[in-house]
Design goal:
Layout lengths: L1 E5 L3 H12 L3 E6 L10 H4 L3 E4 L3 H14 L3 E3 L8 H10 L3 E4 L5 H17 L6 E8 L9 H11 L7 E4 L7 E8 L6 E7 L4 E7 L4 H14 L4 E3 L1 H5 L2
Parallel strand pairs: 1-2, 1-3, 3-4, 4-5, 5-11, 6-8, 7-8
Antiparallel strand pairs: 6-9, 9-10
The structure holds nicotinamide-adenine-dinucleotide.
Length: 238
């Protein structure tokens, strides 16, 4: 398969390595200094583009992929308040977008367990729930995109919560998400239910970025040749 990379930072480099190991060809690599290549024939020849950049440029890059007729797998976080507008553009331009806040297989298992646990806890109102996420100091967004997806998984299943808030509960119907930035931590997410007598905690702790990069390449293999919007739930089908 022919792959174009948009964003050649930590994730872009890791994705390149894994894509080549899986026998794919990298036909174009775009970063901040050669954005004009989004219009090049090499870019247009890609079966799929993989986009890992920064929140301020992700939407422009996705739109450039729609214009070039190249399906795009996006992993950039911190821009998704506008995802419904992006999906509308995608439909208008007959494009393809795969987006996930987290491509790791382990995190996607964790997300499924999180939803199941919230469903059980719905019947046990003595437990409050909160979340902590820890990432490296270079991360631009907080809370992490993964923490927001996890909070949404709880909100879908736990009737006593209707919103999430940063750091502290704005009201008892909020899930507080605490964000910690330290060292080079690839990503730790903990969800904790607490009552007066005990607590139940689940944690996912990523050991490196490799799990995210492999998942992004698997998503690219899944996406090539398809139209419309997809996410990891469509690929993993737990
Ligand atoms: N979804 C997931 O599984 C997952 C996993 C890890 C990271 N991420 C997210 O992916 C994104 C990138 O992470 P990273 O660790 O590779 O960051 P990074 O800072 O190492 O790399 C970002 C790259 O984007 C480039 N860039 C900046 N502006 C650009 C522009 N206008 N056009 C093209 N390229 C531009 C930068 O030069 C840099 O090379 C972040 O939003 C991060 O939160 C998502």
């Amino acid at each position: 398969m022919k792959i174009a990379l948009i964003g050649y930072g930590k994730m872009g480099h890791m994705i390149e390595k894994i894509a080549r190991e899986r026998g794919h060809e990298i036909v174009s690599i775009i970063d901040i200094d050669n954005r004009e290549d989004l219009k090049s024939d090499a870019f247009k020849s890609a079966d799929v583009a993989i986009e890992f950049t920064v929140p301020t440029t992700a939407i422009d890059n996705i739109n450039a992929c729609f214009d070039a007729g190249v399906p795009v797998v996006c992993g950039t976080t911190g821009w998704t308040k506008q995802i419904e507008d992006v999906k509308a553009t995608m439909t208008k331009k007959n494009g393809t977008l795969f987006w996930s806040s987290n491509y790791s297989v382990g995190v996607n298992i964790f997300m499924a367990v999180n939803k199941y646990l919230a469903k059980i806890m719905n019947g046990f109102t003595q437990y409050n729930v909160e979340m902590t996420e820890v990432h490296h100091i270079h991360k631009l967004d907080a809370p992490s995109g993964t923490a927001i997806t996890l909070a949404e998984g709880i909100l879908e299943n736990l009737d006593r919560k209707s919103n999430w808030s940063k750091e502290v509960e704005g009201s008892s119907s909020d899930i507080a998400i605490k964000s910690i930035r330290e060292g080079e931590v690839p990503g730790i997410h903990t969800i904790r239910y607490e009552s007066g007598v005990d607590s139940i905690e689940i944690t996912h702790d990523a050991k490196s970025r490799e799990g995210f990069a492999l998942g992004a390449v698997l998503a690219a293999e899944f996406t090539a040749g398809k139209k419309g919007f997809y996410t990891t739930a469509d690929m993993f089908k737990f």
